[in-house]
Amino acid sequence: MPQTEIPRVALYLQDAHPIRDGMAYARYAEERGFEAVWQAESRLVRDAIVPMAAYAAVTERIKIGSGVINNWTRNIGLLAATFLTLDDLAPDRVICGIGAWWDPLARKVGITRSKPLKAMRETVEVLRRLLALEQVTFHGEFHHVDGIKLDIVHGRREPRNVQIMIGATGPKMMELTGEIADGAVMNYCVPPEYNDMALARLEAGAKRAGRTLDDIDRPQLIVCSVHENRDDAIRGAKMLLTQYLAQQPHIAKASGVNPEIVKQIQAILGWPATKEQIEKATVYVPDDLVLRITATGTPEEARAKVMEYVRHGTTCPILYPLGDPKLMIDTFATK
Question: Which of 101, 138, 201, 244 lies 20 to 30 angstroms, CA to CA, from 121?
Answer without folding.
Answer: 244
